[in-house]
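Regression test case RT-17, inverse folding.

Input:
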């Protein structure tokens, strides 16, 4: 089996690629060309699998339709997982054109390639709980109306709906995974959960004094990315293509996350967290809570990692990372770039 994965260097890209490789797949992944290597997350997989030909990487971009078409035509994958996007909601307000283009041009290009291929290719589209908008405190499922409140969410709604259009119009095996927030030690450091756990690690090691956050009352349904990619895979193995919500069925505030994270190292979050309105979104999504009942009953999918276990896992990894940073700082091999470094 051959899988084609966009966004292979991201958090979900790592966990999905590892899952597929463990199942005997050959994985072909796309990475964006830059002046520096950006494969840090998947470097362990490259070391283990690239030489044997099980993991192959290509320079491409969701906005480069020609390269995507050429790759799919030459590789002829069995499955395509479209994970790539400009995925930071706050950034999408500052860079709305690029953020929406990646969620519009990319999926259409991939779906056209699937439609025109002589081979039956299955297609997975990474949808998002941000599409719901968090208008009220209702539990959200596959039938809930979308009310996007950011350029990122609007783009995701388009990608979700165009996948359904191609599925219904051309008989393509296209599925949408509506994933609620999923985190891990590999989460990008600009996302609030990882920003908190990185700060905890650095504060514990006396490398940082404070961390600045925005809306502490924002409530999210947070799960572990490693569990969620199993749901992606199960969707692609289902007999009938459809759309499924993946969520924990629990919601917690940013304040709860911060409190639990600082408690893991014996600290009180109130002593270290600063609030700045500049870190708040122009149009806040206040409350997200997902209902994964359909995925549980039809796919046999289960969320395996509790909220407290997720926070503990992230804090432990970031404490170790901060300890390594401290050694490098003491040797003069690293300059602090994070906020509020301890002054000599």
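Golden output:
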């Amino acid at each position: 089996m051959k899988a084609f994965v966009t966004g292979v260097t991201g958090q979900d890209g790592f966990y999905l690629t590892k899952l597929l490789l463990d199942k005997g797949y050959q994985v072909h992944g796309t990475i964006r060309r830059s002046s520096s290597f950006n494969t840090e997350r998947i470097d362990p997989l490259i070391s283990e699998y690239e030489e044997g030909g099980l993991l192959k990487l290509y320079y491409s971009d969701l906005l480069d339709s020609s390269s995507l078409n050429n790759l799919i035509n030459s590789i002829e994958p069995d499955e395509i997982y479209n994970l790539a996007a400009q995925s930071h909601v706050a950034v999408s307000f500052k860079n709305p054109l690029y953020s929406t283009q990646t969620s519009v041009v990319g999926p259409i290009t991939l779906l056209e390639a699937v439609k025109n291929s002589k081979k039956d290719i299955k297609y997975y589209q990474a949808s998002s709980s941000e599409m719901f908008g968090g208008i009220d405190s209702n539990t959200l499922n596959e039938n809930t109306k979308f009310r996007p409140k950011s350029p990122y969410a609007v783009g995701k709604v388009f990608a979700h709906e165009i996948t359904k259009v191609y599925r219904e119009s051309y008989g393509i095996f296209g599925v949408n995974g509506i994933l609620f927030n999923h985190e891990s030690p590999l989460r990008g450091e600009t996302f609030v959960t990882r920003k908190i756990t990185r700060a905890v690690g650095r504060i514990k090691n006396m490398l940082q004094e404070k961390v600045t956050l925005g809306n502490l009352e924002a409530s999210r349904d947070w799960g572990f990315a490693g569990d969620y990619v199993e749901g992606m895979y199960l969707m692609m193995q289902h007999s009938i293509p459809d759309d499924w919500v993946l969520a924990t069925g629990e919601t917690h505030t940013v304040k709860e996350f911060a409190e639990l994270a600082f408690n893991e190292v014996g600290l009180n979050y109130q002593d270290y967290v600063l609030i700045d309105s500049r870190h708040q979104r122009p149009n806040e999504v206040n409350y997200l809570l997902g209902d994964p009942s359909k995925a549980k009953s039809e796919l046999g999918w289960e969320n395996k990692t509790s909220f407290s276990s997720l926070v503990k896992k992230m804090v432990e990894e970031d404490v170790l990372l901060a300890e390594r940073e401290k050694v490098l700082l003491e040797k003069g091999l690293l300059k602090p770039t994070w906020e509020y470094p301890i002054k000599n």
